[in-house]
User: Which sequence fits this backbone?
Protein backbone atom coordinates (compact mmCIF):
# COMPACT_ATOMS: atom_id res chain seq x y z
CA UNK A 1 0.00 0.00 0.00
CA UNK A 2 3.09 2.21 -0.23
CA UNK A 3 2.88 3.75 3.25
CA UNK A 4 5.64 6.14 4.25
CA UNK A 5 8.26 4.13 6.19
CA UNK A 6 8.66 6.64 9.02
CA UNK A 7 4.91 6.50 9.62
CA UNK A 8 4.82 2.74 10.12
CA UNK A 9 5.66 0.53 13.15
CA UNK A 10 8.85 -0.84 11.60
CA UNK A 11 10.44 2.56 12.27
CA UNK A 12 10.38 1.82 16.03
CA UNK A 13 11.12 -1.90 15.94
CA UNK A 14 13.05 -2.99 19.03
CA UNK A 15 12.63 0.32 20.84
CA UNK A 16 11.51 0.76 24.45
CA UNK A 17 8.76 3.05 25.74
CA UNK A 18 7.06 3.71 29.04
CA UNK A 19 3.53 2.96 27.80
CA UNK A 20 2.22 0.86 24.91
CA UNK A 21 -1.51 1.36 24.29
CA UNK A 22 -3.58 -1.22 22.43
CA UNK A 23 -6.64 0.39 20.87
CA UNK A 24 -7.12 3.71 19.10
CA UNK A 25 -10.71 4.51 19.95
CA UNK A 26 -11.52 7.67 21.86
CA UNK A 27 -10.39 6.16 25.18
CA UNK A 28 -7.03 4.89 23.91
CA UNK A 29 -6.37 8.23 22.20
CA UNK A 30 -7.27 9.98 25.45
CA UNK A 31 -4.79 7.85 27.39
CA UNK A 32 -2.08 8.65 24.82
CA UNK A 33 -2.71 12.36 25.28
CA UNK A 34 -2.77 12.26 29.08
CA UNK A 35 0.29 10.02 29.43
CA UNK A 36 2.35 12.01 26.92
CA UNK A 37 1.47 15.28 28.63
CA UNK A 38 2.80 13.80 31.89
CA UNK A 39 6.17 13.22 30.25
CA UNK A 40 5.84 9.50 29.51
CA UNK A 41 7.15 7.90 26.30
CA UNK A 42 4.02 6.58 24.59
CA UNK A 43 3.19 4.44 21.56
CA UNK A 44 -0.34 3.51 20.46
CA UNK A 45 -1.40 0.72 18.08
CA UNK A 46 -4.82 0.49 16.43
CA UNK A 47 -5.78 -2.54 14.33
CA UNK A 48 -7.99 -0.51 11.95
CA UNK A 49 -8.41 3.27 11.81
CA UNK A 50 -8.50 5.63 14.76
CA UNK A 51 -12.02 6.12 16.08
CA UNK A 52 -13.40 3.66 13.55
CA UNK A 53 -15.08 1.19 15.94
CA UNK A 54 -17.40 1.98 18.83
CA UNK A 55 -16.43 5.65 18.71
CA UNK A 56 -17.73 6.06 15.15
CA UNK A 57 -20.95 4.15 15.83
CA UNK A 58 -22.08 6.25 18.80
CA UNK A 59 -25.17 8.46 18.99
CA UNK A 60 -22.73 11.39 18.86
CA UNK A 61 -24.06 13.24 21.85
CA UNK A 62 -22.17 14.41 24.92
CA UNK A 63 -24.51 13.89 27.83
CA UNK A 64 -24.90 12.78 31.41
CA UNK A 65 -27.41 10.18 30.35
CA UNK A 66 -30.92 11.08 31.43
CA UNK A 67 -31.99 7.46 31.13
CA UNK A 68 -29.33 6.31 33.62
CA UNK A 69 -31.28 8.10 36.35
CA UNK A 70 -33.89 5.36 35.93
CA UNK A 71 -31.31 2.94 37.26
CA UNK A 72 -30.13 5.30 40.02
CA UNK A 73 -26.66 5.45 38.44
CA UNK A 74 -26.03 8.88 39.95
CA UNK A 75 -22.26 8.50 40.04
CA UNK A 76 -22.10 7.96 36.27
CA UNK A 77 -24.49 10.83 35.51
CA UNK A 78 -22.60 13.25 37.77
CA UNK A 79 -19.26 12.25 36.22
CA UNK A 80 -20.47 12.66 32.66
CA UNK A 81 -22.21 15.98 33.33
CA UNK A 82 -18.92 17.27 34.69
CA UNK A 83 -17.09 15.95 31.63
CA UNK A 84 -19.69 17.51 29.34
CA UNK A 85 -18.58 20.89 30.68
CA UNK A 86 -14.93 20.00 30.21
CA UNK A 87 -15.45 19.05 26.55
CA UNK A 88 -17.47 22.19 25.83
CA UNK A 89 -14.48 24.13 27.11
CA UNK A 90 -11.52 22.25 25.58
CA UNK A 91 -13.11 21.39 22.20
CA UNK A 92 -15.68 24.12 21.45
CA UNK A 93 -15.39 23.60 17.70
CA UNK A 94 -16.39 19.93 17.97
CA UNK A 95 -18.64 19.84 21.05
CA UNK A 96 -21.60 22.22 20.96
CA UNK A 97 -24.79 22.75 22.99
CA UNK A 98 -27.89 20.93 21.78
CA UNK A 99 -31.43 21.43 23.01
CA UNK A 100 -33.57 18.29 23.35
CA UNK A 101 -37.35 18.33 23.41
CA UNK A 102 -39.39 15.66 25.19
CA UNK A 103 -43.08 15.43 24.23
CA UNK A 104 -44.96 14.00 27.21
CA UNK A 105 -48.62 14.88 26.64
CA UNK A 106 -49.47 11.23 25.97
CA UNK A 107 -47.74 9.97 29.14
CA UNK A 108 -49.72 9.04 32.22
CA UNK A 109 -49.75 11.33 35.25
CA UNK A 110 -47.22 9.21 37.14
CA UNK A 111 -44.77 9.16 34.23
CA UNK A 112 -45.13 12.93 33.72
CA UNK A 113 -44.30 13.46 37.38
CA UNK A 114 -41.39 11.05 37.10
CA UNK A 115 -40.06 12.90 34.06
CA UNK A 116 -40.27 16.31 35.75
CA UNK A 117 -38.46 14.95 38.80
CA UNK A 118 -35.80 13.37 36.62
CA UNK A 119 -35.11 16.62 34.77
CA UNK A 120 -34.89 18.52 38.05
CA UNK A 121 -32.38 15.97 39.37
CA UNK A 122 -30.45 16.15 36.09
CA UNK A 123 -30.06 19.91 36.52
CA UNK A 124 -29.06 19.47 40.16
CA UNK A 125 -26.37 16.91 39.31
CA UNK A 126 -25.01 19.25 36.62
CA UNK A 127 -24.08 21.76 39.32
CA UNK A 128 -22.72 25.00 37.84
CA UNK A 129 -23.32 24.06 34.20
CA UNK A 130 -22.95 26.78 31.57
CA UNK A 131 -25.89 25.32 29.62
CA UNK A 132 -29.44 26.63 30.05
CA UNK A 133 -31.63 24.88 32.59
CA UNK A 134 -34.69 22.81 31.80
CA UNK A 135 -38.03 24.35 30.95
CA UNK A 136 -41.48 22.94 30.54
CA UNK A 137 -44.62 23.98 28.73
CA UNK A 138 -47.94 22.31 28.17
CA UNK A 139 -47.13 18.75 27.12
CA UNK A 140 -43.45 19.43 26.34
CA UNK A 141 -40.20 19.62 28.29
CA UNK A 142 -36.85 20.88 27.02
CA UNK A 143 -33.33 20.53 28.35
CA UNK A 144 -29.76 20.91 27.09
CA UNK A 145 -26.94 18.47 26.53
CA UNK A 146 -24.32 18.68 23.78
CA UNK A 147 -23.52 17.13 20.42
CA UNK A 148 -20.27 15.97 18.84
CA UNK A 149 -20.91 15.39 15.15
CA UNK A 150 -17.48 13.84 14.62
CA UNK A 151 -16.24 11.83 17.62
CA UNK A 152 -13.64 10.43 15.22
CA UNK A 153 -12.12 13.90 14.88
CA UNK A 154 -12.20 14.25 18.66
CA UNK A 155 -10.04 11.12 18.78
CA UNK A 156 -7.69 12.54 16.14
CA UNK A 157 -7.27 15.80 18.07
CA UNK A 158 -6.28 13.83 21.16
CA UNK A 159 -3.63 12.09 19.05
CA UNK A 160 -2.40 15.39 17.61
CA UNK A 161 -1.88 16.75 21.11
CA UNK A 162 -0.26 13.47 22.20
CA UNK A 163 2.13 13.70 19.23
CA UNK A 164 3.02 17.28 20.15
CA UNK A 165 4.21 15.86 23.48
CA UNK A 166 6.25 13.05 21.93
CA UNK A 167 3.76 10.20 21.52
CA UNK A 168 3.73 7.98 18.41
CA UNK A 169 0.59 6.32 17.03
CA UNK A 170 -0.02 3.82 14.24
CA UNK A 171 -3.29 2.79 12.63
CA UNK A 172 -3.69 -0.51 10.77
CA UNK A 173 -1.22 -2.02 13.23
CA UNK A 174 -2.54 -5.10 15.03
CA UNK A 175 -1.12 -6.32 18.33
CA UNK A 176 -0.77 -10.09 17.98
CA UNK A 177 0.92 -11.02 21.25
CA UNK A 178 3.04 -9.89 24.16
CA UNK A 179 6.65 -9.89 25.20
CA UNK A 180 6.96 -11.64 28.55
CA UNK A 181 9.44 -11.91 31.39
CA UNK A 182 7.99 -14.71 33.46
CA UNK A 183 4.42 -13.70 34.23
CA UNK A 184 5.08 -10.00 33.52
CA UNK A 185 3.96 -8.32 30.30
CA UNK A 186 6.98 -6.36 29.05
CA UNK A 187 5.86 -5.22 25.62
CA UNK A 188 3.94 -6.16 22.49
CA UNK A 189 4.32 -7.87 19.14
CA UNK A 190 2.70 -6.02 16.26
CA UNK A 191 1.81 -6.88 12.67
CA UNK A 192 1.60 -3.99 10.25
CA UNK A 193 -1.59 -4.65 8.28
CA UNK A 194 -0.43 -2.38 5.47
CA UNK A 195 2.98 -3.95 4.84
CA UNK A 196 2.83 -7.29 6.65
CA UNK A 197 5.97 -6.43 8.61
CA UNK A 198 6.36 -7.57 12.20
CA UNK A 199 7.50 -5.27 14.99
CA UNK A 200 8.30 -5.67 18.68
CA UNK A 201 8.26 -2.83 21.20
CA UNK A 202 9.22 -3.09 24.85
CA UNK A 203 7.04 -1.22 27.35
CA UNK A 204 7.12 -0.74 31.09
CA UNK A 205 3.30 -0.75 31.06
CA UNK A 206 0.94 -2.10 28.41
CA UNK A 207 -2.65 -0.82 28.31
CA UNK A 208 -5.57 -2.81 26.90
CA UNK A 209 -7.97 -0.10 25.68
CA UNK A 210 -9.45 -2.18 22.87
CA UNK A 211 -13.12 -1.77 23.78
CA UNK A 212 -15.28 -4.58 22.36
CA UNK A 213 -12.13 -6.43 21.30
CA UNK A 214 -10.97 -6.47 24.94
CA UNK A 215 -11.34 -10.21 25.58
CA UNK A 216 -9.60 -11.12 22.32
CA UNK A 217 -6.70 -8.81 23.09
CA UNK A 218 -6.51 -9.98 26.71
CA UNK A 219 -6.25 -13.57 25.53
CA UNK A 220 -3.45 -12.69 23.08
CA UNK A 221 -1.51 -10.55 25.55
CA UNK A 222 -2.10 -12.18 28.94
CA UNK A 223 -3.43 -15.58 27.99
CA UNK A 224 -5.89 -15.91 30.85
CA UNK A 225 -8.13 -12.86 31.18
CA UNK A 226 -11.16 -13.38 28.91
CA UNK A 227 -14.76 -12.98 30.02
CA UNK A 228 -14.43 -9.49 31.51
CA UNK A 229 -16.81 -7.52 29.28
CA UNK A 230 -20.32 -7.79 27.91
CA UNK A 231 -20.77 -6.67 24.32
CA UNK A 232 -24.02 -5.18 23.05
CA UNK A 233 -24.97 -3.87 19.62
CA UNK A 234 -26.30 -0.39 18.98
CA UNK A 235 -27.90 0.52 15.65
CA UNK A 236 -28.80 3.97 14.29
CA UNK A 237 -30.92 4.71 11.25
CA UNK A 238 -29.92 7.66 9.08
CA UNK A 239 -33.13 8.88 7.47
CA UNK A 240 -34.47 11.61 5.28
CA UNK A 241 -35.47 14.59 7.44
CA UNK A 242 -38.33 13.51 9.72
CA UNK A 243 -37.69 15.79 12.70
CA UNK A 244 -36.56 19.43 12.81
CA UNK A 245 -35.63 19.34 16.51
CA UNK A 246 -33.61 16.93 18.62
CA UNK A 247 -36.18 14.74 20.35
CA UNK A 248 -36.13 12.36 23.29
CA UNK A 249 -38.80 9.73 22.73
CA UNK A 250 -39.93 6.54 24.41
CA UNK A 251 -40.17 3.29 22.47
CA UNK A 252 -43.69 1.99 21.97
CA UNK A 253 -42.16 -1.51 21.85
CA UNK A 254 -40.40 -1.69 25.23
CA UNK A 255 -40.37 1.81 26.76
CA UNK A 256 -36.67 2.37 26.07
CA UNK A 257 -35.51 6.00 25.87
CA UNK A 258 -34.52 6.83 22.28
CA UNK A 259 -33.42 9.81 20.19
CA UNK A 260 -34.28 11.55 16.93
CA UNK A 261 -31.48 14.00 16.05
CA UNK A 262 -31.21 16.27 12.99
CA UNK A 263 -27.70 15.98 11.57
CA UNK A 264 -26.11 16.91 8.21
CA UNK A 265 -29.51 17.34 6.55
CA UNK A 266 -30.76 13.94 7.73
CA UNK A 267 -32.35 12.61 10.92
CA UNK A 268 -30.57 10.02 13.05
CA UNK A 269 -32.84 7.62 14.93
CA UNK A 270 -31.77 5.18 17.60
CA UNK A 271 -30.61 3.26 19.27
CA UNK A 272 -30.89 -0.47 19.91
CA UNK A 273 -29.19 -2.34 22.76
CA UNK A 274 -28.97 -6.09 22.23
CA UNK A 275 -26.37 -8.66 23.22
CA UNK A 276 -23.83 -9.45 20.54
CA UNK A 277 -21.36 -12.34 20.43
CA UNK A 278 -19.72 -12.00 17.02
CA UNK A 279 -16.68 -10.15 15.70
CA UNK A 280 -17.25 -6.44 16.42
CA UNK A 281 -15.78 -5.58 13.03
CA UNK A 282 -18.63 -7.46 11.35
CA UNK A 283 -21.50 -5.74 13.20
CA UNK A 284 -24.29 -4.60 10.89
CA UNK A 285 -27.92 -3.59 11.12
CA UNK A 286 -30.39 -6.38 10.44
CA UNK A 287 -33.92 -6.09 9.18
CA UNK A 288 -35.08 -6.82 12.74
CA UNK A 289 -32.99 -3.95 14.11
CA UNK A 290 -34.46 -1.50 11.60
CA UNK A 291 -38.01 -2.72 12.24
CA UNK A 292 -37.55 -2.28 15.99
CA UNK A 293 -36.49 1.36 15.64
CA UNK A 294 -39.28 2.14 13.18
CA UNK A 295 -41.92 0.44 15.31
CA UNK A 296 -40.58 2.17 18.42
CA UNK A 297 -40.81 5.69 17.02
CA UNK A 298 -43.57 5.73 14.42
CA UNK A 299 -46.13 6.92 17.00
CA UNK A 300 -44.14 10.13 17.44
CA UNK A 301 -43.01 10.43 13.80
CA UNK A 302 -46.12 9.26 11.92
CA UNK A 303 -44.67 10.00 8.47
CA UNK A 304 -41.74 7.64 9.08
CA UNK A 305 -41.49 4.77 6.57
CA UNK A 306 -38.92 2.12 5.71
CA UNK A 307 -38.14 3.90 2.45
CA UNK A 308 -37.05 6.95 4.47
CA UNK A 309 -34.04 5.00 5.80
CA UNK A 310 -31.00 5.97 3.73
CA UNK A 311 -28.39 3.91 5.54
CA UNK A 312 -27.50 2.61 8.97
CA UNK A 313 -24.71 2.71 11.55
CA UNK A 314 -23.98 -0.29 13.76
CA UNK A 315 -21.39 -0.63 16.49
CA UNK A 316 -20.56 -2.67 19.57
CA UNK A 317 -20.42 -1.35 23.12
CA UNK A 318 -18.06 -2.86 25.65
CA UNK A 319 -19.67 -2.93 29.11
CA UNK A 320 -18.29 -4.22 32.36
CA UNK A 321 -19.71 -7.76 32.48
CA UNK A 322 -22.82 -7.99 34.68
CA UNK A 323 -26.07 -9.91 34.59
CA UNK A 324 -29.36 -8.29 33.65
CA UNK A 325 -31.07 -6.67 30.69
CA UNK A 326 -28.52 -5.20 28.26
CA UNK A 327 -29.91 -1.66 28.44
CA UNK A 328 -29.81 -1.70 32.25
CA UNK A 329 -26.08 -2.50 32.53
CA UNK A 330 -24.10 0.46 33.86
CA UNK A 331 -21.87 2.38 31.47
CA UNK A 332 -19.49 3.16 34.34
CA UNK A 333 -15.91 2.25 33.54
CA UNK A 334 -13.36 0.24 35.47
CA UNK A 335 -9.55 0.47 35.37
CA UNK A 336 -7.70 -2.63 36.57
CA UNK A 337 -4.00 -3.10 37.32
CA UNK A 338 -3.64 -6.75 36.32
CA UNK A 339 -0.82 -7.52 38.75
CA UNK A 340 -3.48 -8.95 41.05
CA UNK A 341 -4.66 -11.15 38.18
CA UNK A 342 -1.20 -12.57 37.55
CA UNK A 343 -0.18 -10.29 34.67
CA UNK A 344 2.08 -7.54 36.08
CA UNK A 345 2.75 -4.75 33.62
CA UNK A 346 -0.75 -4.83 32.13
CA UNK A 347 -3.48 -2.25 32.80
CA UNK A 348 -7.01 -2.94 31.55
CA UNK A 349 -9.74 -0.42 30.75
CA UNK A 350 -13.28 -1.80 30.83
CA UNK A 351 -16.50 -0.01 29.89
CA UNK A 352 -17.01 3.73 29.66
CA UNK A 353 -18.66 5.99 27.08
CA UNK A 354 -17.60 8.86 24.85
CA UNK A 355 -18.76 11.66 27.15
CA UNK A 356 -16.50 10.49 29.96
CA UNK A 357 -13.55 9.37 27.84
CA UNK A 358 -11.20 12.01 29.26
CA UNK A 359 -11.97 11.01 32.86
CA UNK A 360 -11.52 7.34 31.96
CA UNK A 361 -8.15 8.18 30.42
CA UNK A 362 -7.16 10.16 33.50
CA UNK A 363 -8.03 7.23 35.78
CA UNK A 364 -6.01 4.88 33.59
CA UNK A 365 -3.03 7.23 33.43
CA UNK A 366 -3.16 7.66 37.20
CA UNK A 367 -2.86 3.86 37.50
CA UNK A 368 0.05 3.87 35.03
CA UNK A 369 1.76 6.69 36.91
CA UNK A 370 1.46 4.91 40.23
CA UNK A 371 3.10 1.83 38.76
CA UNK A 372 5.92 3.88 37.23
CA UNK A 373 6.39 6.24 40.16
CA UNK A 374 5.43 9.34 38.17
CA UNK A 375 4.10 12.25 40.22
CA UNK A 376 2.84 14.51 37.42
CA UNK A 377 -0.90 15.17 37.49
CA UNK A 378 -3.36 15.29 34.62
CA UNK A 379 -3.73 18.57 32.72
CA UNK A 380 -6.17 17.38 30.05
CA UNK A 381 -9.22 19.05 31.64
CA UNK A 382 -7.57 22.47 31.58
CA UNK A 383 -5.64 22.47 28.31
CA UNK A 384 -7.69 22.86 25.10
CA UNK A 385 -7.31 20.39 22.27
CA UNK A 386 -5.36 21.73 19.26
CA UNK A 387 -8.37 23.05 17.36
CA UNK A 388 -9.72 24.71 20.48
CA UNK A 389 -6.70 26.96 20.91
CA UNK A 390 -6.26 30.52 19.70
CA UNK A 391 -8.73 32.71 17.91
CA UNK A 392 -11.73 31.19 16.19
CA UNK A 393 -11.89 31.01 12.43
CA UNK A 394 -15.27 32.75 12.02
CA UNK A 395 -15.06 35.93 10.01
CA UNK A 396 -11.42 35.36 9.05
CA UNK A 397 -11.90 34.18 5.48
CA UNK A 398 -12.03 30.52 6.49
CA UNK A 399 -14.81 28.44 4.96
CA UNK A 400 -17.51 27.96 7.64
CA UNK A 401 -17.55 24.17 7.47
CA UNK A 402 -13.79 24.09 8.11
CA UNK A 403 -14.17 25.81 11.47
CA UNK A 404 -16.65 23.15 12.60
CA UNK A 405 -14.16 20.42 11.68
CA UNK A 406 -10.81 21.95 12.58
CA UNK A 407 -11.42 24.96 14.84
CA UNK A 408 -8.32 27.17 14.86
CA UNK A 409 -6.50 24.54 12.73
CA UNK A 410 -8.73 25.54 9.78
CA UNK A 411 -6.07 28.12 8.95
CA UNK A 412 -3.71 25.24 8.09
CA UNK A 413 -6.19 23.98 5.50
CA UNK A 414 -6.57 27.44 4.00
CA UNK A 415 -2.79 27.85 3.74
CA UNK A 416 -2.58 24.64 1.71
CA UNK A 417 -5.39 25.88 -0.52
CA UNK A 418 -3.59 29.20 -1.03
CA UNK A 419 -0.34 27.45 -1.99
CA UNK A 420 -2.09 25.20 -4.51
CA UNK A 421 -5.25 26.67 -6.05
CA UNK A 422 -6.30 23.25 -7.32
CA UNK A 423 -6.72 22.21 -3.68
CA UNK A 424 -9.19 25.04 -3.08
CA UNK A 425 -11.74 23.41 -5.37
CA UNK A 426 -14.60 21.35 -3.86
CA UNK A 427 -14.20 17.60 -4.03
CA UNK A 428 -17.68 17.48 -5.55
CA UNK A 429 -20.35 20.06 -6.37
CA UNK A 430 -22.51 18.35 -3.76
CA UNK A 431 -20.33 19.25 -0.76
CA UNK A 432 -18.23 22.17 0.55
CA UNK A 433 -15.19 19.99 1.37
CA UNK A 434 -12.05 20.88 -0.58
CA UNK A 435 -8.92 19.07 -1.71
CA UNK A 436 -6.69 20.75 0.86
CA UNK A 437 -8.51 18.82 3.58
CA UNK A 438 -7.41 15.54 2.01
CA UNK A 439 -3.78 16.67 1.84
CA UNK A 440 -3.83 17.78 5.48
CA UNK A 441 -5.41 14.47 6.47
CA UNK A 442 -2.70 12.49 4.66
CA UNK A 443 0.20 14.58 5.98
CA UNK A 444 -0.86 15.21 9.57
CA UNK A 445 -3.83 13.01 10.50
CA UNK A 446 -2.81 9.42 9.63
CA UNK A 447 -5.25 9.18 6.70
CA UNK A 448 -4.23 6.29 4.44
CA UNK A 449 -7.46 5.18 2.73
CA UNK A 450 -10.38 6.84 0.96
CA UNK A 451 -12.71 5.51 3.66
CA UNK A 452 -10.52 7.08 6.35
CA UNK A 453 -11.20 10.50 4.86
CA UNK A 454 -14.87 10.11 3.93
CA UNK A 455 -15.94 8.51 7.19
CA UNK A 456 -13.47 9.65 9.84
CA UNK A 457 -11.62 12.84 8.76
CA UNK A 458 -14.67 14.65 7.38
CA UNK A 459 -18.45 14.53 7.71
CA UNK A 460 -18.96 13.26 4.16
CA UNK A 461 -19.86 9.80 5.43
CA UNK A 462 -22.94 11.28 7.11
CA UNK A 463 -24.41 12.68 3.89
CA UNK A 464 -27.18 10.98 1.95
CA UNK A 465 -24.75 9.23 -0.43
CA UNK A 466 -22.07 8.81 2.30
CA UNK A 467 -19.57 10.86 0.33
CA UNK A 468 -19.57 8.58 -2.69
CA UNK A 469 -19.65 11.50 -5.14
CA UNK A 470 -16.39 12.81 -3.65
CA UNK A 471 -14.63 9.44 -3.48
CA UNK A 472 -12.90 9.63 -6.93
CA UNK A 473 -11.39 13.06 -6.16
CA UNK A 474 -10.27 11.89 -2.71
CA UNK A 475 -8.64 8.82 -4.28
CA UNK A 476 -6.80 10.97 -6.84
CA UNK A 477 -5.34 13.25 -4.18
CA UNK A 478 -4.35 10.41 -1.84
CA UNK A 479 -2.77 8.54 -4.73
CA UNK A 480 -0.44 11.47 -5.29
CA UNK A 481 0.29 12.15 -1.65
CA UNK A 482 0.93 8.51 -0.69
CA UNK A 483 2.46 7.36 -3.99
CA UNK A 484 0.00 4.57 -4.61
CA UNK A 485 0.69 1.86 -7.20
CA UNK A 486 -1.48 2.06 -10.35
CA UNK A 487 -4.16 -0.43 -9.25
CA UNK A 488 -4.61 0.96 -5.77
CA UNK A 489 -7.10 3.70 -6.71
CA UNK A 490 -9.66 1.25 -8.08
CA UNK A 491 -9.24 -1.08 -5.11
CA UNK A 492 -9.87 1.82 -2.76
CA UNK A 493 -13.08 2.82 -4.53
CA UNK A 494 -14.26 -0.78 -4.54
CA UNK A 495 -13.62 -1.03 -0.79
CA UNK A 496 -15.64 2.15 -0.20
CA UNK A 497 -18.51 0.81 -2.28
CA UNK A 498 -18.45 -2.37 -0.20
CA UNK A 499 -18.52 -0.37 3.04
CA UNK A 500 -21.51 1.62 1.85
CA UNK A 501 -23.33 -1.51 0.74
CA UNK A 502 -22.94 -2.98 4.24
CA UNK A 503 -24.83 -0.02 5.67
CA UNK A 504 -27.73 -0.69 3.30
CA UNK A 505 -27.75 -4.47 3.38
CA UNK A 506 -30.71 -4.54 5.78
CA UNK A 507 -32.99 -3.97 2.77
CA UNK A 508 -32.08 -7.39 1.40
CA UNK A 509 -32.90 -9.01 4.73
Assistant:
Amino acid sequence: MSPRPLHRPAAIDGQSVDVAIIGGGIVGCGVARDAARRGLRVVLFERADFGGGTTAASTRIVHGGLRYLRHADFRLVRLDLREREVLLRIAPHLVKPLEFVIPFADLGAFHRLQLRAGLALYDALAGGSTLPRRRTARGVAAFYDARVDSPERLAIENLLDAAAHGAVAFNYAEVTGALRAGASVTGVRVRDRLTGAGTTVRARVTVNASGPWFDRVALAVAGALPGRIRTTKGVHLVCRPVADRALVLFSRVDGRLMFAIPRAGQTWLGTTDTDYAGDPAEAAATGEDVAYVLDSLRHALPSLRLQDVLHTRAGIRALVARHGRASSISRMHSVVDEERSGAPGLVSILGGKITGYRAVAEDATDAISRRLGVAARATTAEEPLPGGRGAGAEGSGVLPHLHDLYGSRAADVMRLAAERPDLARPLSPRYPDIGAQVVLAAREEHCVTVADFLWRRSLLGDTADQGWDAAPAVADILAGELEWPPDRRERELAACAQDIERTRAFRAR
